[in-house]
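thread from #wetlab-drylab

HS: before we spend reagent money on co-crystallization trials with nicotinamide-adenine-dinucleotide, can we at least see a predicted complex? here's what I'd submit
DV: go for it
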Amino acid sequence: MTGGGRLAGRVALITGAASGIGKATARRFLAEGARVAAADANGDGLAAEFGGCDGAIAVTGDVSQPADSARMAAATAEAFGSIDILVNCAGIARYTEFLELPLAEWQVVQDVNSTGTFLMAQAVARHMVTSHPEGRTRAIVNIASVEAHVVLASEGHPQVHYNASKGAVHMITRALAVELAPHGIRANSICPGVTETPLASYALSVCRFFDQITLPLAAFRHNRSPMVPSV
Ligand SMILES: NC(=O)c1ccc[n+]([C@@H]2O[C@H](COP(=O)([O-])OP(=O)(O)OC[C@H]3O[C@@H](n4cnc5c(N)ncnc54)[C@H](O)[C@@H]3O)[C@@H](O)[C@H]2O)c1
């Protein structure tokens, strides 16, 4: 669907689009009239969701790999002429207690969540600054987490690596907002609370205290049904 809507005529590249929040975002952008490059490491998931979808292309790749991030940005620009919006949503979570946490697990979480955000932002921003259709504003939206700001200390939820990666996303975003402002590119992050998706399913199955932790924080509330209908 590429008719009217708040994003009519806009081009968006959305990572993590095969599942959860990224999938919901891509669907919503399409419903609002954007043309969407749905990006994810899960090519089968992309094909199932966006194969043959009017206004969408699927671009498969790993956001933590420089060659893949550059290729996904180039494929989007080639298909649609330019890129107006990047939504960096691809992410992973792992759960290992700090004293047992292996370096490899620490590293993969940083690679996907923070390095992936950096690589995709850089690859897309390079296209944005060289191809800028008249009158079109451009934006980078990074999906951080409430856990960029608070530790959801709960039994079964040890996440120093996830916290660190999302704190990095938060500060990457602030730095980009400053560095890219002269190019007319806005950068903002969104910090969802706990949202029922495959990523959160393990935590939701083992953590007993999320509701007590999140309910007093209205902005960080546990997202149950509101997300699901639009996923
Ligand atoms: N679900 C929550 O409670 C919650 C809360 C706050 C923030 N977030 C963040 O929201 C984002 C989306 O999470 P979700 O809950 O929708 O998870 P999800 O598991 O449903 O979707 C994540 C998607 O990212 C893709 N992905 C993972 N690694 C990738 C890589 N290296 N390259 C390309 N794609 C990759 C996966 O294939 C998957 O399709 C993540 O950044 C997550 O940290 C989630």
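DV: The chain has seven helices and six strands.
HS: ok that's useful, forwarding to the group
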